[in-house]
TrEMBL record:
The chain crosses the membrane at residues 116-134, 141-158, 164-183, 195-213, 225-246. It comes from the Bacteria. Belongs to the ThrE exporter (TC 2.A.79) family. Keywords: Cell membrane, Membrane, Transmembrane, Transmembrane helix. It is found in: Cell membrane. Residues 12-247 form the Threonine/serine exporter-like N-terminal domain. This is Threonine/serine exporter-like N-terminal domain-containing protein. Its main location: membrane. It holds the Pfam family ThrE.
Amino acid sequence: MNEEYKQTVLTTALLAGRIMMESGSEAYRVEDTMLRICRHAGFLNAESYVTATGIFLSLNDLTGSQLQQARRRSTNFERIANTNQLSRLYTSNAITLEELNHRLQEVDINTPNFPFWWKIICAGIASTTLMIIMGGSYYDFLAAIPIGAAGYVVSVLVSKYTGLLFINDLFASIVITFLVLLLENMGLVTDRDMLIVGTLIPLVPGLAITAAFRDLFAGHLLTGIVRSVEAIITASVLGIGIALMLSSM
């Protein structure tokens, strides 16, 4: 095996791992996909180590190890499914290594996402249903839609323009609580607490919590702990935003 082939295997496997990690996949699933690619390419002793922000891969020969950073955080199951499917096509000899690399680059760049306006609508609708599930009043049904949508918009915009973790959730919880209290003072809200809880639920890091426990159970203690801490901080920030508004109004 020449050096160019080894480098292609490393680059392709690391690309697959980065796409999956940045899209919200569990660490053990990322490792499984990367090792599946390497072993089918002829490197049976390949080893990988995945954390929340870094992916390490070694072919256990003179090429040494390489690192790929996972810089972005998102939730995109379509990217995960497409990457996993391509790796299985490669291991079944349906596509070549070069084709796998090219198609993974297309997944990384061209995977479609839902329009922003559609996400806003879904956030509003989800807020209403979650509010009812949590025991809220049907009289607050219409109020939950714009409040939940507004909270989501604030969270996305603050994250986009500041690039800081957790600050977007703080501002979103402040805006949500302010709008709920405003409507309550106008006599348009019957159950303030449940309305706040329902409209905040779309911002709660449910995927991070689930992935953290699955990584912990799979033995990836470092990644599981990091994700657990991230989820705890996010939940705490949401609570701080609520407390700030309730104490000031």
